[in-house]
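To assess whether ligand presence alters the predicted conformation, the chain was also submitted together with iron/sulfur cluster. Input:
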Amino acid sequence: MTTVFLDIGSNIDRTENIQSCVDQLLIDFPGVIFSTAYESEAYGFEGDPFINLSARIQTDLSYQDLKTYLKNLEDRHARKRDNEKFIARTLDVDILLFGDLILQPEIDLPRAEILKFPFVLFPLSEIAADIIHPQQQKSIAEIVKISKLDENTLTKVKDFPILNMSKNTVKVQVGNITVGGGEPVVVQSMTNTDTADVVRTVQQVAELAKAGSELVRITVNTLEAAEAVPEIRQRLDKMGCDVPLVGDFHFNGHKLLSAVPECAKALAKYRINPGNVGKGKRGDEQFAQMIEFAIKYDKAVRIGVNWGSLDQKLLASMLDENHKLESPKELAEVQHDALIESALGSAAKAEKLGLPRNKIIISCKLSGVQDLIKAYQDLAGMCDYPLHLGLTEAGMGSKGIVSSTAALAVLLQQGIGDTIRISLTPEPGAPRTKEVIVAQQILQSMGFRSFTPQVVACPGCGRTSSDYFQRLAQDIEIYLGEQMPVWKGKFAGVESMSVAVMGCVVNGPGESKQANIGISLPGSGEKPVAPVYEDGEKTVTLKGDNIASEFQQIVEAYVESHFAS
Ligand code: SF4
C-alpha cells in the first residue's frame, strides 16, 4: 500500500460537487482524509476563486491508474472544467497541509460549513506543501516570498489543522482499551522490575493498574523475561486485573517473539524502536519479523522512536542529502526531520508488510520540552496514527513533573496526543505509581478526564494562624485518594467532585461555594469557627478540636447522598 496525496484540483467549484466527490472517494477508499484549499490569483492562477479538494489515501493503484480514476471522478462530478493546468494531479507526498482558507470568508464553502463535514478538512495550499514537508521545509520568510501571502496569514493558519487533529486519528484497539479516534486520552505506565521476577512484576503491574494505569508496559529483554510474560498475564487475570500488557522490545525482540509464542500471544501490544532493531538489511529483516508476529497474533504495535537511539544510518543519509542542498539546514533541523522520518517511515514499512493501519501507534520521544512539542506538532500534521506522548528522560521529582506537564499540556491543548506516559525517575523509596498519578493530574487539571475528586486549597499566607489547614487539605486529599478504589464502582461520577479547603474567610467562602463541598478554616484574628458549604449553601459551622474528622464525615455523607446510583 502506498500513501498518496491526491490533488483533485480546481475543477470542483461548488459545494455539491465537492460533496459528490467526497462521497465517491469514501466508497472507493475507506479511511480517506480530505483537505481543501481556497486558491486564487495569489498563487498565480487566473479566474474566479475556487475550492481545491485534496485527499490522502492508501492504495495499491499505479500512478497512471490513479490519474484515470481522478479524471473519471471529475468527469462525473465537476460542473466546470478549466484548462489543462487544473486537471487532477497526483503527488507522491503523504502529508496533510494547511492553507489560507480560514482567512477568506467570501469563499463558497466557509470554514463553519467545512467543520460540519463528518471528517476533518484541512485547509491546504500547494505552497503549504513546501512549508511542512520535512525534506523541503522552508522558513515563513521564504514562503511569504514564494506565495505573495503576508506573514500574518501564514502564521495564523498554522493553528487550524492542529486544533482538529486528535479527533481524526485512527482507533487502535490494545486489548480492552481503545487508543485514538477521539477516545479519552489513555494513561499508561511502565514497570521497573526485572520481568523475569514474576512475583515482583505482577505486584507492580497490579499496583500501577490499581492506581489507574490503563496500559502497563513491561521490559522483554531476555529469554527468561519472555518466558515469564505468559505467567504474569495468568496471575494478573486470576487476581481480576485485566490491564493490557505492552512488551518493550529492543535488539532481540524478533528472536524472543519467535522463541516464546506464548509471550507473543499474552502481550496486547509490542513496542518496537526502529533505532534498536539492528543495522542495515538485517535490521530491516528483524523489523519485518516483529511486524509479522504482530500480524499473526493480531496485536497492536507502537513504533517508538527515541532521541537517544535514533537510527544513525538514516540520520547519516539525511545529512548527506542536506549537504547537497543549496541552503543546507542546521544540524538540529536535520536531526528533527530524521526522528520524524524514522517514525513515519517505519510505520509505512509496517503497513507495506501488511500490518493494518488500525494497529499502529506512533511515538517520537525527546528530552527537551520545545523539541518534543515541535516533533509532535509536525507528526500530528503528517499522519493520522494515534500518538503516544511522553517526554523521555524527564528526570526526578518536581523537575520531571514540571517538564512533562509543560510539554504535554501544550500538545494536549492543541488536540494532539491519544495516550500519555510520564517518564519519571522515582526518588528512592517513592512508589512507581507516582507517574500514573501525575499523568492523571495533568489530564484532570486540564479538564480532559476525571479520575479522583479534586481538592482546591489556598496557598496560605500571613492570615493563616497555623499549618492546621495545610494538614487538613493534605488529609482530605489522602482520604479521597484512598476512598476512590472503593467509591469507583459504587458512586458514579464521584471522581468529578471538588472539595475546597481554605485558610481564612478572605477567599474561603467564595471558593467553598464554587466547590461541591468546602470548608473555610479560621485565619489569625478570626473567630475559631469553620463554616462548611455544600452545593453553594452554608450547611454547618464546625468548631473545637475535631474539625478534621467531622469534615471528613460530612464529605462521606455528601458522597453517599449525591453519587449513589
Ligand atoms: S484564603 Fe486566606 S489564608 Fe488562604 S491565601 Fe487567601 S487570604 Fe491567605
